[in-house]
Design brief:
It is a single chain. This protein is of the alpha+beta class. Among the domains are: 9-49, no CATH class; 113-223, LysM domain (Membrane-bound Lytic Murein Transglycosylase D, Chain A, Roll); 259-364, Glucose Permease (Domain IIA), CATH 2.70.70.10. It is 23% helix and 21% strand. The strands form 4 sheets. Strands 7, 8, 9, 10, 11, 12, 13, 14, 15 and 16 form a 10-stranded antiparallel sheet that branches. Strands 1-2 form a two-stranded antiparallel sheet. The longest helix has 25 residues, at 9-33. It is elongated and about 145 Å long. The protein starts with 8 loop residues before the first helix and ends in a 9-residue tail after the last strand.
Amino acid sequence: MPDQPELTLLARLRVWGAPYLIAVRDFLGDITDDMPLLTRIASHVGLILLMMVTIAASGIQINLNGEKGTVNTAPPSDDEITLPDPAPEDTAAFFRSPIPVTNAPKRVRRDVIKYTVQGGDNVSSIAEDFEVSADSILWANGKLEDNPDMLSVGQALNIPPVSGVLHTVAAGDTLKSIAEKYRGKKTADAIIQNIVNLEFNQERHDFKDGAINLTAGQYLMVPGGSKPYQPRVVSAYSGPLPATAARGTGNFGWPVSGRITQKFWTRHPGIDVGAPTGTPIYAADSGYIVQSGWSNVGYGNMILINHGNGYLTRYGHLSKLNVEIGESVKKGQLIGRVGSTGNSTGPHLHFEIIRGGTHRNPFGLLPGR
């Protein structure tokens, strides 16, 4: 038999690899014919890729220098600080810079505001809205100073820039005389310093070069100042009470159901209870009706009850009166209905308790709310 020619290297590789190529061809053919298998393989590959992305995003470092397959999750030591790698430029859209938040300082008003009273307003609510004390509102509006209930819808009020006394400079006034008048429990020097430091005053008077020249007719704000209080003198009914007149026990009950809209304070000698027009009003204690009718001092329709034990109770701004002068009433008896008569900005009951000519805080004599 003649000698076989020796195969080249390439031919040998072809002969050696032929069975494997055929196996791969058959395998690929089976995959294409079996789509569910292809789907399973694709899902496994996708799951592996997702795990790799998650590991990369979590910041877990693979200890390439240690034993294979271990994960280095130990936190850095106290003297070792690991800083995050800077984000590449093309990922800037995913890492936005924080938006700075600036807390602007409160801006102090530098003028006297004219405010028109709206329905439902009272001195306390207006003061709260403008962040000044209620006394400051009264001191800046003389007609209200003795009776905050004289407030009426449409009335124009002066609102001072800060809490204190808004004084109109008169001829002959000096900084010292004004400070002495309104210093209250503070020292005159402290009040003077407050006056001089306030920009509101600096814009209206000449405080240059240490000289203090006041301009007559201009406002001067006294920050932290206090106007001397002149107590209001009231005259209780002193006529004789019939022997058969009902007398109170001194244990008062709430005269109406509603919401407290203004509390008792120095310039407001009672409490205001807001309620819808027509809400029933009851006698807070048994007594004798000494006044039932129109009041010319801002209360509108008003009832005054003498309880025969030194106490009087007043009910103001009523829409309807259900009792007349000379009647005896029992505690809890219907005497009228809520309204907004007289100087009132909305339906409410103004309620006072008076003893010996002195107004008492009703909250101290009424049962707990």
